[in-house]
Amino acid sequence: MDFKEYLKQQKQLVDNALDKLVPAANKPPARLNQAIRHSLIDGGKRLRPILVLAAAQAVGGKPEPLLPFACALECIHTYSLIHDDLPAMDNDDVRRGRPTCHKQFDEATAILAGDGLLTLAFELAARPIQDVPAQDSLAMVVQLSQDAGIHGMVGGQMMDMEAEDREVELAELQYIHIHKTGALIRSSCMAGACLGGGDKSQIKLIKRYGEAIGLAFQITDDILDIVGDSELMGKTIGKDQQQAKATYPALMGLGQARDEADNLVNEALSCLQGFSADAEPLRALARYITDRTH
Ligand code: GRG
């Protein structure tokens, strides 16, 4: 398959759906909708929604009906970026190649834009999906709440903040990465597998796939913060070293961190061994996690 073309097409599909599902910039409250659109529209790789669609395809399901759920993942992800960039957290000026939400608007608007995106996400995730039993939808909404919230991303962010300015061992760092970044990626994969009609064993394997690429994704992010190109990445890099943050390369060196990420990608690929050619996009996405340059 032409993976570059696949990514481009899927991103376009997600971008079009987001544009339709998010309130127009001139609709009241216009400033809030403009702030949401500033951070959300035409930005980012759309990895999480694309994973939802690819996981559905891998189990033989139709991806298109899952677009609102897939967009919910992107709304939650974008909210986390907006809040993470605030002065009270990472205090960043640039995100997705443009000024961060609080820089372009103001702090209060950025907080509300994040809150608006988080709540919109659950409205989208709870929408009935053609041919999907309501109990499966409900189970994935619950899963998403847990993975995005206290037991997942939000909890991971708190642990990350608490670990600043002190020694962190690898086991703790892994725990932080799994929660802060991995949980939402796992949720994306599980939602696609379940809502795409996968059976229990397929969902379990794709869940494990998601866990492995989720951790590999954050390790790669740690690596790119050292060797990446800030223009390509659309954000400030080198901040981890500047803040003496615990990262995989800081704890084990660049080479071993790369090996760790590669091993996880191989583990993810082995989860898909019994799947048909329909899982090819999911396989290519796993390889992309460590090959990416932004
Ligand atoms: C709940 C406030 C709050 C934060 C949660 C996810 C997160 C914690 C903070 C965002 C900043 C950060 C470094 C997160 C780690 C995950 C990560 C690498 C995000 C960037 O994701 P990409 O590369 O971004 O998919 P694009 O812009 O391509 O969507």
Protein described:
With 294 residues, the chain is mainly α. The chain has one domain: Farnesyl Diphosphate Synthase. It contains 15 helices and two strands. Strand 1 and strand 2 form a beta hairpin. The two termini are 21 Å apart. The mean pLDDT is 96. It binds geranylgeranyl diphosphate. Geranylgeranyl diphosphate (GRG) binds next to helix 4, helix 8 and helix 9.
- Which small compounds were modeled alongside the protein? geranylgeranyl diphosphate
Structurally, the number of domains stands at 1
CATH level-two architecture: Orthogonal Bundle
Tell me, what is the CATH class?
A: Mainly Alpha
Could you give the distance between the termini? 21 Å
Total strands: the figure is 2
* Individual helix count: 15
Q: The CATH topology, please?
A: Farnesyl Diphosphate Synthase
Largest sheet, spatial ordering of strands: 1-2
Could you list the spans in which at least 5 consecutive residues all have pLDDT below 50? none
Derived from helix and strand composition plus strand pairing, the structural class reads: mainly alpha
Biggest sheet, open or closed, and with what strands and sense?
2 strands, antiparallel
* CATH superfamily membership: Farnesyl Diphosphate Synthase
List the helices and strands and how they pair.
Layout lengths: L2 H19 L8 H11 L6 H12 L8 H18 L9 E2 L2 E2 L1 H4 L2 H19 L8 H15 L4 H10 L7 H26 L4 H28 L2 H4 L5 H4 L5 H5 L1 H18 L8 H12 L3
The structure holds geranylgeranyl diphosphate (GRG).
Brief account:
With 294 residues, the protein is mainly alpha-helical. The protein contains 15 helices and two strands. The model has no long low-confidence stretch (mean pLDDT 96).
